[in-house]
Specification:
The chain is mainly α. The protein has 17 helices and no strands. Helix 8 runs antiparallel to helix 13. It is globular. The termini are far apart.
Length: about 425
C-alpha cells in the first residue's frame, strides 16, 4: 500500500510538470518565441520577393529588378532609424519596440498586399523597414540579453542557429501559398501572422524589465562606449557582411564563370546553406570554452581562404570546397556579430551598441548585391572575387586590431 504522503498523487500529473519544466524558464520561452517570430518576420519581408517577385512584377507593371529593390529599401530604412532607436532600446527595453515592430510589419504587408502601383509597393517596404528596426535581429538579440543574464551568449547561439532555417522553411511555404491563393493573399496571410502571432508573443513572453538594470539606469550619465573599439568592430562586421550579402544573388553566376555547368553550380550553391548552418553550431557547441575573438577570427580567416580556392580552381571539387569554407565562415560570423559585443563593451550597453552597429551592417547589406552585380557586369566575375578577397582580408585585419586593442585596455585596467 502506498505511503499516505503519495497516495493522492497522480503519476501522470507528476510527469507533466517535469516534462515541461524547461519551458518554465523565461529564457527558454523567450528564445522559443523569438525563434518563431524571427522566422516569420524575415520570411514575410526580406525573403518574400525571392518567391513572389515575378508575380508581383507582372501585376504591378514593374520590372523584376525594381521589385527586388524593395528589400534594399527596407534595409536602408532600418539603417537610418537604428541609431536613434538605440537610446529607446536602452531606456525602455526591447519588448515595447518589438510589439510596435510587429504591428508595423502587419501594416506594411497589408499595404503590399493591396498595392496597385510602384509607389504603394515602395511605401510598403518603407513601413517594413521601420518594422524591421523594431523587431528583426538586433531587437531580438537585445531582448535575449535582457532576459538571459549570464547565459546570454548560449541563448543567442540557439536563436541564431534557429534563424539559419528561415529560407528552408519559409520559401517552400510561400510557394505553396502562392500556388494556391496567389501572391496577394500570401502577403495578407503573413500580415495576419505578424499581427496575431508575433505581436501577442512579444507582449507575453519578453521581459518587462531587464534581468539586470543597465548602467544607464543606475547612473545619471550613460556608460561610454569606446569609440575606436566600436569603429574597428563596425568596420569588420560591415566588411564581412558586405561579402556575405554581396554574393547571395551572384554565387551561381560565379560558379558558372569558373567552368561549372548550371546543375553543378546550383548544387554547390545549395550546399552553402548546409555549411552555414554547420558554422552556426560552432559557437553553440564550444561557446563556453572559446573566446568570442577566437571564433570570430577563425570565421574571418576562412573567408579569404574560400575566395582564394575559387580563384585557383575551376572544378566542381573546388566549388564544393569553396562552398564549405564560405558557408562555415558565414555561419560563424553571424554568431560573432551577436555575441562579440557582449565581450567588448561595458555591461549594460549591449542594447545601445547593438542598435548602433546595425547602422553600418544594414547599409552594407543593402549596398552589397547591386555593387557586386555591377562589378561582375562591367569588370567580370574574377574582378568580383578579387574584390571580395581584399574586403575579407580587411575584415580580418580590423578584427585582429580590435583584439590587440582589447588586450591593451584590459592590461591597463588591471594595472590601475
Amino acid at each position: 500500500m502506498p505511503s499516505p504522503r503519495y497516495r493522492n498523487r497522480n503519476p501522470i500529473a507528476l510527469s507533466v510538470p517535469i516534462a515541461w519544466m524547461p519551458f518554465r524558464s523565461p529564457t527558454v520561452r523567450a528564445v522559443a518565441t523569438l525563434s518563431l517570430t524571427q522566422l516569420i518576420g524575415w520570411g514575410a519581408t526580406f525573403y518574400l520577393p525571392a518567391v513572389t517577385g515575378s508575380a508581383m512584377a507582372g501585376e504591378l507593371g514593374m520590372t523584376l529588378p525594381m521589385v527586388m529593390a524593395g528589400p534594399t529599401v527596407m534595409l536602408v530604412v532600418m539603417a537610418m532609424v537604428s541609431w536613434p532607436l538605440s537610446a529607446v532600446f536602452e531606456r525602455h527595453g526591447a519588448r515595447p519596440m518589438m510589439v510596435l515592430g510587429s504591428f508595423l510589419g502587419a501594416a506594411g504587408l497589408l499595404v503590399m498586399g493591396l498595392a496597385d502601383d510602384p509607389a504603394s509597393y515602395i511605401l510598403s517596404w518603407t513601413i517594413l523597414g521601420l518594422s524591421g528596426a523594431g523587431m528583426l535581429t538586433t531587437p531580438a538579440q537585445i531582448a535575449v540579453s535582457e532576459i538571459a543574464g549570464e547565459k546570454t551568449r548560449q541563448a543567442l547561439g540557439v536563436l541564431i542557429l534557429a534563424g539559419g532555417l528561415t529560407s528552408t522553411v519559409i520559401w517552400p511555404l510561400t510557394e505553396l501559398l502562392q500556388v494556391k491563393w496567389g501572391w496577394r493573399m500570401t502577403t495578407l496571410i503573413f500580415a495576419a501572422l505578424m499581427l496575431l502571432v508575433c505581436m501577442p508573443l512579444h507582449w507575453m513572453t519578453l521581459a518587462r524589465q531587464p534581468k539586470e538594470k543597465s548602467a544607464v539606469r543606475a547612473t545619471a550619465e550613460p556608460v561610454a562606449i569606446d569609440g575606436p573599439s566600436f569603429t574597428l568592430l563596425a568596420a569588420s562586421f560591415a566588411a564581412n557582411g558586405f561579402v556575405t550579402w554581396g554574393f547571395a544573388l551572384t554565387i551561381i553566376i560565379l560558379f558558372e564563370a569558373a567552368g561549372l555547368d548550371h546543375a553543378s553550380a546550383l548544387a554547390a550553391a545549395a550546399f552553402i546553406g548546409i555549411a552555414r548552418w554547420a558554422g552556426r553550431t560552432v559557437d553553440f557547441i564550444g561557446g563556453r570554452r572559446w573566446s568570442g575573438f577566437a571564433t570570430g577570427l577563425a570565421g574571418s580567416a576562412l573567408f579569404p581562404l574560400s575566395f582564394a580556392v575559387l580563384l585557383l580552381s575551376n572544378s566542381f571539387t573546388g566549388a564544393m570546397l569553396f562552398a564549405t569554407l564560405y558557408g562555415i565562415a558565414s555561419g560563424i560570423t553571424a554568431v560573432t556579430r551577436a555575441t562579440l559585443p557582449l565581450q567588448i563593451f561595458p555591461s549594460g550597453t549591449y542594447a545601445r551598441a547593438s542598435a548602433q552597429l546595425a547602422v553600418p551592417l544594414n547599409l552594407s547589406y543593402a549596398a552589397a548585391p547591386p555593387l557586386f552585380t555591377a562589378v561582375m557586369s562591367y569588370a567580370g566575375p574574377h574582378a568580383a572575387l578579387w574584390s571580395a578577397l581584399a574586403i575579407s582580408i580587411f575584415a580580418y585585419c580590423t578584427l585582429f586590431g580590435l583584439l590587440l586593442r582589447h588586450r591593451r585596455m584590459s592590461h591597463a585596467t588591471q594595472r590601475s
